[in-house]
Design goal:
Layout: E1 6-8, H1 12-36, H2 50-75, H3 83-90, H4 92-96, H5 111-135, H6 142-173, H7 179-182, E2 185-187, H8 188-194, H9 196-203
Antiparallel strand pairs: 1-2
Length: about 200
């Protein structure tokens, strides 16, 4: 069997949900930065100007929140860490330096992806919860709103950094990874290198 033959990795629904989560978060990040830093306010032009961006921001946040719930429900069963995952985390330096021979074989998702999933989920809950408070500020006291603003900004920055790392790992660091989210398929060579246990299961 050719190593360049393809394996199905993600369904159409999974790819659409992933796209909506990513797209809505980028839109929130751009408009949020524009509101936070006057020098970046020009970014609101992408949403039709300042007033339009302020109206759209919480509604895009609603789309993000709903799509995150969908993402969590789709993948949560595969994201619990097992004994092999803890061994993988112990070799994360070898993974980062692409010393594959010293990295324990991963299943469909490696431990780093699983940790990313849980951290992203926690940040999303904080992001959406604080966003709801800030959407209706007249209903809450100023002290609570100040805390909400701080947590909202912190979760945004954390999510933004994770997004950069996520895109880098899926494109530059590990070529062939992003294809799984574009057409749902990966090559057998890629699967055997990065997710050997999953590749073996698909070959049975």
């Amino acid at each position: 069997m050719s190593s360049e033959s393809l394996l199905g990795r993600f369904t159409y629904v999974e790819r659409v949900v992933h796209c909506v989560v990513g797209g809505s978060f980028v839109a929130l990040l751009v408009t949020g930065l524009a509101f936070s830093y006057p020098s970046l306010f020009w970014l609101t032009a992408l949403a039709g100007g300042g007033p339009a961006a302020r109206v759209l921001h919480p509604w895009i946040g609603t789309v993000f929140g709903v799509s995150m719930v969908c993402m969590l429900s789709l993948w949560i069963r595969d994201m619990f860490l097992d004994r092999d995952d803890w061994r993988w985390l112990g070799a994360v330096k070898d993974y980062a330096t692409q010393n594959h021979d010293k990295v324990p074989p991963a299943g469909k998702y490696n431990a780093g992806q699983k940790v990313f999933f849980w951290v992203q989920g926690v940040l999303a809950v904080v992001f959406v919860a604080t966003g709801l408070l800030l959407w209706m500020p007249e209903r809450f006291e100023s002290g609570l709103l100040s805390v909400a603003r701080l947590l909202h900004f912190a979760s945004t920055m954390g999510g933004g950094l994770l997004l950069i790392v996520h895109v880098y790992l899926g494109t530059i660091a590990y070529p062939g990874t992003a294809r799984g989210m574009i057409d749902g398929k990966v090559t057998r060579r890629w699967a055997a290198l990065h997710h050997p246990r999953w590749h073996q299961d698909q070959s049975l």
